[in-house]
């Protein structure tokens, strides 16, 4: 199993373009507090459990919305800059 992941690095860039559907009524002046993340596991990720666990770990000030993009990729919408910065700086 270790040999399967030997060439995998977190710094490795993906060249695939990922398009996210946004609401047509959003204002251009609003801060973009969004991330796309993925899980590097061969196991199945149970979306409702993951969503609940991540929200409990992060304790977002104004909440977080998490959408399943498929292929173990997830869209995270934050509603406060502090929440986004905390996650980027190394929160689980």
UniProtKB/TrEMBL annotation:
Organism placement in taxonomy: Eukaryota, Viridiplantae, Streptophyta, Embryophyta, Tracheophyta
Domain DUF4283: 35-91
The protein's name: DUF4283 domain-containing protein
InterPro entries: DUF4283
Source species, domain of life: Eukaryota
